Amino acid sequence: MTVAVGFNLDKGPFLAGEAVDIDSLRWLIAGDRYCLLELGSTMDLGTNLRAIQLANRLLDERIDGVIETLPMFVSVLVHYDSTELDPAALRSQIAGIWHEVASESDVVVPSRLIEVPVCYLDPWTRECVEDYSRNVKPIEDDPAFVARQSGLPSPEAFVRRHAFSHHWVGGVGFWPGLPDMMPLDPRCQHSLPKYDPPRVWTVSGAIGVGGGFTSIYPMNTPGGYHLIGRTPLPVYSLDRRLSPFRTRATLFEPGDRVKFRPIDIETYSEIEQAVAAGAYRFGIIDTELFALSRYRAWAKEVKAIEEEEPLPW
Q: Which of 46, 124, 268, 295 has the most crowded CB, counting CB atoms within 10 A?
């Protein structure tokens, strides 16, 4: 049996994956070109904002050997050239930057607002669910299931609530370009189980909800989130005719906010054709600053209003 071995600069050899604490930040070796920084275990907005800020600061420092960073809800993956940047030097740089980030009373990050048209309760994702019911096991229709699990009277009520809030992109990954999002409006939060076992296929552009999150499937892939709609927009593309993809292959980046706009099947077809022709104009407001302190103050006000007068979904 082969065991991956790294080197702890203070203690000598250690198994790859062993955690090293840096002022409450956990450093984990992830091969010879990556390290994983864990900020905590709770998937909340505050932790995610600090992960995004840490990832941005690491790039802003232009450290020789650091190639890219990938923030997620509670972690940051750092890709670096270990032949150019010694792990000890990288860890020292990270410790200094993390000390600054962790000591700041507020967190402010750049944030774009992106409009995503969605055909909710669509026939394409319904076929995914029906195929699963025929070939894996019988299940309830996804929109009806998520509405019932959320204590709402109908799938249409869940759609209204889902489209009401801006959704925060906490990370991009798992599949190329796939965003993991959480609703920013506390009145629109959900907690949903996932498929067991997962689907073997999901139509591209499907909007899925699972746990407290929403995702958009970038291509035909397996999946475990419950499906409530489909967007005609690509979230991963190599077509440089489309303006968001001229310098990168993904539509979203961590720290984006998403506003879902309900559309009908006819509008879906029109947008799909415009995208195929390279003529669709994406609705992107670039760039604003998002402050954790302002968000928390707003969320507190919203919760107080909801207690006195709940929204009639």
A: 268
d(CA 211, CA 99): 32
Statement: the pTM of the whole predicted model exceeds 0.85: yes
Write out the two tokens for 267: 């509008």
List, for residues 289-302, the tens digit of each pLDDT value. Answer: 999 999 999 999 99
CATH of 111-308, one of 2.60.40.3080, 3.30.540.10, 2.40.100.10, 3.20.20.190: 2.40.100.10
- Cα(294)–Cα(216) distance, rounded to whole angstroms? 28
- pLDDT of 24 reads 81
Structure confidence at residue 23 (pLDDT) = 64
Class assignment of domain 5-104?
Answer: alpha beta
Question: Which is it for strands 108-120 and 257-262: parallel, antiparallel or unpaired?
Answer: parallel
Residue 219: pLDDT above 60?
yes
Distance CA 242, CA 240 (A): 5
